[in-house]
Design brief:
By secondary structure, the chain is mainly α. The chain is 81% helix and 0% strand. The chain contains ten helices and no strands. The protein has helices spanning 3-23, 28-38, 43-68, 75-101, 108-130, 142-159, 164-175, 179-203, 212-235, 238-264. Helix 3 crosses helix 9. It starts with a helix and ends with a helix.
């Protein structure tokens, strides 16, 4: 890959991590479909690069919040959610590998991911627009939280997005969280699921072939983006975050529609 490609990948990671830190979506839901659209690497490689970038960004955001005392993470519900998501992440990774093995062209699995992500993102967009009219709940049972987290982990790992918008909708609906509180709790859950997914990839020896320079560049971009996004998040209100999130979901849907045609065309 040429230098221009490295620059594009790193800029995408930086921009996605800024928005991810602001909205609590981790950035993977932007990085994954955007890099897929360029068609420069295999789907499995992009999954790995996206996951590592999201892991770095979410780790910084969560740790920085704890150190500064500004964390709004509800440990009582977020920790069992995170544990469930970690286990679900391993299951989701296995599911993706199974789907990938079904096709002669492994990149065809990208079309499956894009279609699923487009549908889920559309549902997320509709919910976010109408959430003021939807009744929400306050789940407190730890076992139920683990089950919900497991389902989140499976979906996010299978789609290669880290969690993102799916986490936010779940936190809105099942736990009645405000937008910015949900963002912090979402990043906490993403941290657990991505860390487990990364360790699983390393332990099983299924790390795809990627440029170490590109990987390092994307991770650094993820950290810098997380810093910038966290700073911006402090200065804007929930309504502004919601508007940014809604606009982002619309763009992601269009990118995934393009990716579906790209992979099956």
């Amino acid at each position: 890959m040429g230098n221009l490609v490295y620059v594009v990948f790193i800029l995408v990671s930086f921009g996605a991590s800024i928005i991810g830190a602001i909205c609590g979506i981790g950035g993977g839901v932007i990085i994954k479909p955007t890099l897929d659209a360029f068609g420069l690497l295999e789907v499995s490689a992009i999954n790995f690069l996206s996951g590592c970038t999201v892991l770095a960004m979410s780790c910084y955001s969560v740790v920085r919040g704890r150190i500064s005392g500004s964390s709004q993470v509800d440990m009582k519900s977020a920790t069992p959610l995170a544990v469930g998501a970690a286990v679900g992440g391993i299951a989701g990774k296995s599911m993706f590998q199974a789907v990938e093995s079904m096709f002669a062209d492994k990149n065809t699995a990208g079309a499956v991911q894009a279609a699923c992500l487009a549908v889920i993102t559309l549902g997320t967009l509709i919910y976010t627009v109408k959430k003021e009219k939807i009744k929400t709940y306050r789940i407190q049972n730890a076992a139920v939280c683990v089950v919900i987290g497991f389902i989140l982990g499976v979906m996010s790992s299978f789609l290669g997005i880290g969690g993102g918008p799916i986490n936010l909708v779940v936190l809105y609906f099942f736990f009645s969280m405000t937008t910015k509180t949900a963002a912090q709790n979402s990043l906490y859950i993403i941290l657990f699921s991505q860390a487990t997914s990364f360790l699983s990839t390393v332990v099983t020896g299924s790390v795809p072939h990627v440029s170490l320079l590109l990987l390092a560049g994307m991770i650094i971009a993820g950290l810098l983006g997380g810093m910038a996004g966290r700073s911006i998040n402090k200065k804007i209100d929930d309504r502004t975050v919601d508007k940014l999130f809604i606009g982002l979901m619309a763009v992601i849907i269009l990118i995934n529609i393009y990716n579906i045609y790209y992979y099956i065309g």
